[in-house]
Design goal:
By secondary structure, the chain is of the alpha/beta class. It has one domain: fumarase (Alpha-Beta Barrel). It is built from six helices and eight strands; from the N terminus they run E-H-E-H-E-H-H-E-H-E-H-E-E-E. The two termini are 22 Å apart.
Length: 171
């Protein structure tokens, strides 16, 4: 097996362009977390142009579909309507990598290609990911508790590219 492709946030267009379905990546740096409760709010803020007032910059960002709890972080299903519908607007706002689990629609796979963004799956290994999470901070919507929008600092999160360049690992 070849070595994981090392990615450090924020991600550049050039870092994303060569990624292909099946590549294993290792992600380090700050990433955002969000799932069905908060992502519609982040999309609304992006569409209104108010992300910066929340202290959020999505340029080159990674969004991990998870909640942050004392037990750690673990992926949630990315094909929930509130999550999958966030891919396109958040990619347009600068997100380069969406991180979660499960199969996404063919339409979303094609939209990712148009925005030079990718989707990666990560195994549900909460305890392991917690040991690789160095910092956590609520950035927006603290009233949502563990489903608030967080920024976490990670070290060597490994994931598999599941959608890139118009192709899906699930095809």
């Amino acid at each position: 097996m070849k070595e994981p492709i090392k990615l450090t946030t924020p991600l550049s267009e050039e870092a994303i362009r060569p990624l292909r379905v099946g590549d294993v990546v290792s992600i380090s740096g700050y990433i955002y977390t969000g799932r069905d409760a908060v992502l519609p709010r982040i999309v609304a803020a992006a569409e209104k142009g108010t992300l910066s007032s929340l202290g959020i910059s999505l340029e080159g960002a990674v969004i991990f579909h998870t909640a942050v709890s004392p037990a750690g972080v673990g992926p949630t299903s990315s094909n929930k309507p509130e999550i999958e519908s966030s891919f396109r607007p958040l990619s347009k706002a600068g997100v380069k990598l969406h991180l979660g689990k499960g199969e996404i629609s063919y339409e979303t796979v094609k939209e990712l290609k148009e925005d030079n963004a990718v989707f990666a799956v990560i195994p549900p290994v909460t305890a392991l990911l917690e040991s690789q999470t160095n910092e956590r901070k609520v950035i927006a919507f603290p009233e949502l508790g563990m489903e608030a929008f967080h920024r976490i600092k990670v070290n060597n999160y490994q994931a598999i590219i599941a959608a890139a360049d118009g192709e899906s690992i699930y095809d």
